[in-house]
Amino acid sequence: MTRVAAITGAGSGVGRAIAIALVQSGWKTALIGRRPALLEETAKLASTLNPHAAVRAFPCDIGNHDAVGEMAKSVVQSLGEVEVLVNAAGTNAPHRSLEVLSLQDYREMIDTNLNGAYFCTQAFLPGMRQRGSGTIVNIVSDAGKLASPKAGPAYVMSKFGLSGLTQSINAEERARGVRACAIFPGDIDTPLLDKRPAPPDGNARSRMLRAEDVARCALLAIELPSNVIVEELVVRPR
After folding, report:
1. What is the pLDDT of residues 176-185, one digit of tens each?
2. Percent helix, strand and coil across the chain, each rounded to 5?
3. pLDDT tens for residues 183-215?
4. Which sequence spans correspond to the domains of the chain?
5. Is-catalytic flag, 155?
């Protein structure tokens, strides 16, 4: 195993938690996201926990197909062929119901939550195929199982699509040594909650999952023997 991982949405929340967990486990780690300052914060946190870690920031708008292609080339040149891809980038909008959802917000959610995962998957899959091994973890949501007004239609559509992408990877690529896992968390206490029409208070957040909880699930899917595929994990707070 080459032990190189690429994580989208690595500047905060679940993406940051997974990146830090992988660095602590000795992986060379590519941090991918739109905001360079937040990626550098993640890199510093990770380096504090593992001073010998090879961790690099790769700012990129993953909704831009050409930008993803260039980013993927830079990752491979800098760290080596990617063995693990984690699609953790996700967004929503305060005005999210069908009645008020704007075209701009709709497109941003589809680009970030679904198109970005597809573009990154297509960018790193050829190397996985050539090597005959690779793991792709998609951070979905319980909104990818059942629609709710809380999530809004664009978010729900993107997450159902991400679930379908995961199934398609396993259907087409498992014979070539590539596996995919879709993780469906319930509510997680991350900065994304601040984009809700009415952000939850501290008491509500205290009962939610932590980003680190989801990171442990991602590592489970990644570190299992290569002959095992965890296709789906549904994770909820107790």
Report:
1. 999 999 999 9
2. 50, 15, 35
3. 999 999 999 999 999 999 999 999 999 999 999
4. 4-235
5. yes
